[in-house]
Amino acid sequence: YQLHLRSKQFMDKFDNEVNLKTFLNKNEDIKDWLLNNYNKEYGKYFNENSITWGKNTLIDSPKIVEGDFDCSYNQLTSLEGAPEKVEGDFNCSNNQLTSLDGAPKIVEGNFYCNNNKLISLEGAPEKIEGDFNCSDNQLTSLEGAPKKVEGNFNCSSNQLTSLEGAPEKVEGYFDCSDNQLTEKDIEWLKQNCKIKGIIIWE
């Protein structure tokens, strides 16, 4: 098995997802070890100290969130007032955002800004410790994207004609499918970015 608590990934040797809670209920010794050594991360995995935000403005939201912060499906047009640090996932997907200005500076889990009206990634954190998903927007450029993504990077279903501005390093896969890209753009990506996983573009 492989476990990465921050990105909430628990997989078997075939890279298939496994339900961690069920597994730990059957393996109390491993559960006790996790609680003794990674209590804070364990709490984030199971959404303890997480916040589901239900307002159409982020003004007055907490500055630091110890778990996940989910403000999706709120008709948000701005991230002004968003937390400065989120120790779990930050999810602002399915809103009316055109910009990431005001986004948290630090996100220790996944960052979801898909299904908005983004025309720029300016304002995104420089480093994401999980996945970064900006698919289904109106991006024509990746300028402003995080410099390093420790999970997967998904910029599919945009209006990209170039991959300039892409992260310098992606530990997982890179999905840029359903854009207006050519083999020349993919070659540029391979030469300028360190992508550990596969590149999906057709």
Percentage of β-strand residues:
15-25%
Unreliable stretches: none
Kindly report the average pLDDT value.
92
Helicity level, as a percent range? 10-25%
Short description:
It is built from four helices and 17 strands.
Kindly describe this structure.
The structure is a single chain. With 202 residues, the protein is α/β, with parallel strands linked by helices. It contains 4 helices and 17 strands.
List the main descriptive attributes of the protein structure presented here.
globular, single chain, 4-stranded parallel beta sheet, 8-stranded parallel beta sheet, 17 strands, 202 residues, alpha/beta
What are the SSEs and their pairings?
Elements lengths: L1 E3 L4 E3 L8 H7 L1 H10 L1 H7 L5 E2 L11 E2 L3 E2 L14 E2 L3 E2 L14 E2 L3 E2 L14 E2 L3 E2 L14 E2 L3 E2 L14 E2 L3 E2 L7 H10 L1 E2 L3 E2 L2
Parallel strand pairs: 3-5, 4-6, 5-7, 6-8, 7-9, 9-11, 10-12, 11-13, 12-14, 13-15, 14-16, 15-17
Antiparallel strand pairs: 1-2
